[in-house]
Design goal:
The protein is mostly helical and about 450 residues long. It is globular, with a radius of gyration of 22 Å.
Length: about 450
């Protein structure tokens, strides 16, 4: 028996297979290409290596092959039946995640983490904005992530994966001043960790450090392979920073080069979310992309997303349909989302339907209705999942809806509410065009 790099025993007779397993996990955690090559070699050396089958399942999921991912996850679980309890639990969690049993998987992750705090792979499924907590429909999933990581932190010390995960959780929970030093240390320990780079960029966004964030991505991204799963999304952040500076042409160039469907090597879900939200922001800010980009997005959505799925995707499908002014598709989406809610298949609950309806209303020029729907839904935006930077497009939409409905004071209030707790993220010229003036944060008086 050998141990992984986190000190967890693994049942395999091959030291080389164990080392390759570590390499594969590191590639997955750093969001670097190469995990498939490493884990395939490990399985060639030891076809009965249960946890290697689990990593292969995760690697296939990241490549968008859920069918093969489920097959490897089942094989890993079956091989783990006679193994020690940790490996059985580890494999069972992976199998439940791959099969979409999210609530059961999350409960098992919590129990598993309490017993085996350094078993990184099961723990990792609960983390990030698209993980079991992020897509679990919780109003406080960012805070829950911090709480989970704090509970296991005494077992970790300095590890590049853990520091990156913990630091980003703090950033999204509104504690960037705590999270950013962790992310910086994670990058010192492993400079090619795209996951830590991503968290660090979010830290810049949350602090309103546009120039710093843009320079950081500009310096790091050229070293990242174009087929890296996060390449398109980091480019999306580049474009978002450019929009914040009012440089619409740079944002368009970045979109065409690295974000649009034909350029992105990410999962279709990631590509949809990035493209739809960036195109909608361009429209809201008065810098829409051209007809070619709209046609490409429409064709991509039609080919890849024939029906509604998880809430965060559904909201971005609504954005995509609105960007290309496809009213029929918006109506079909609303009906489909409504049916999923009735079947209790939308973890976010009704907020997803409210947001989709608001986007459809805005696209139809019914600004009063859009503003009312978004105001009602705003307390539950976090239940959709995603990061603050991603969900902020809905706040931008709410500002525009209120403004075009003639409610300038309400538009100002929506913007001001965000500025009171987070950095100012919006382009000043755009705000001035809307008649909105940023006000300084209220400072608590001394007792």
């Amino acid at each position: 028996m050998h141990a992984d790099r986190f000190g967890q025993p693994m049942t395999t007779a091959s030291a080389r297979a164990a080392a390759l397993y570590d390499d594969a996990v590191d590639c997955l955690f750093a969001l670097q290409p190469g995990s498939d090559t490493h884990i395939d070699e490990a399985l060639t050396l030891d076809p009965d290596f249960a946890l290697a089958h689990c990593v292969k399942a995760r690697s296939l999921l990241m490549a968008g092959d859920a069918v093969e991912g489920r097959r490897f996850a089942i094989r890993g679980r079956d091989l783990a039946v006679p193994l020690p309890r940790r490996e059985r639990s580890h494999a069972d969690i992976v199998c439940r995640v791959v099969h979409g049993e999210s609530a059961a998987a999350l409960a098992m992750v919590r129990e598993h983490a309490a017993a085996y705090p350094r078993d990184a792979v099961p723990l990792s499924f609960a983390l990030g904005v698209y993980g079991l907590l992020g897509f679990g429909g919780y109003r406080d999933f960012h805070a829950q992530q911090v709480e989970l990581l704090e509970s296991v932190a005494p077992a970790w010390g300095e590890d590049w994966w853990f520091l990156a995960s913990w630091g980003w959780a703090y950033v999204e929970a509104g504690r960037a001043e705590v999270g950013i030093p962790m992310l910086d240390r994670a990058l010192e320990l492993k400079p090619d960790n795209a996951n830590a780079v991503h968290g660090r960029v979010h830290g810049c966004y949350e602090q309103g450090a546009v120039a710093e964030g843009e320079a950081f991505i500009d310096a790091w991204l050229p070293s990242y392979p174009r087929d890296g799963v996060l390449h398109g999304h980091l480019a999306w952040h580049q474009a978002l920073f450019a929009l914040q500076r009012g440089d619409a042409e740079r944002a368009r160039c970045i979109y065409r080069d690295a974000v649009r469907p034909a350029a992105s090597a990410a999962l279709p879900m990631f590509t949809l979310i990035d493209c739809a939200s960036l195109l909608l922001r361009g429209i809201l800010y008065g810098h829409p992309l051209g007809a070619e980009e709209q046609r490409e997005l429409a064709a991509f959505v039609e080919a890849r997303f024939p029906k509604p799925s998880i809430p965060f995707v559904n909201v971005h499908l609504a954005m995509a349909h609105a960007c290309v002014d496809d009213r029929d598709a918006l109506a079909d989406l609303e009906r489909g989302v409504g049916a999923l809610i009735e079947e209790d298949r939308q973890a976010s609950g009704p907020v997803v339907a409210e947001v989709c309806a608001a986007i459809a209303a805005y696209a139809a020029g019914r600004y009063h209705l859009a503003a009312r729907l978004l105001a009602a839904a705003m307390p539950d935006f976090e239940r959709l999942g995603g990061s603050h930077a991603q969900r902020d497009v809905l706040i931008d939409l709410s500002i525009c809806a209120h403004r075009y409905a003639g409610a300038v004071e309400s538009a100002q209030s929506v913007a001001q509410e965000r500025w009171q707790c987070r950095a100012q993220h919006l382009n000043q010229e755009w705000l001035a065009h809307l008649g909105i003036v940023p006000q300084p944060k209220a400072v608590a008086s001394s007792p």
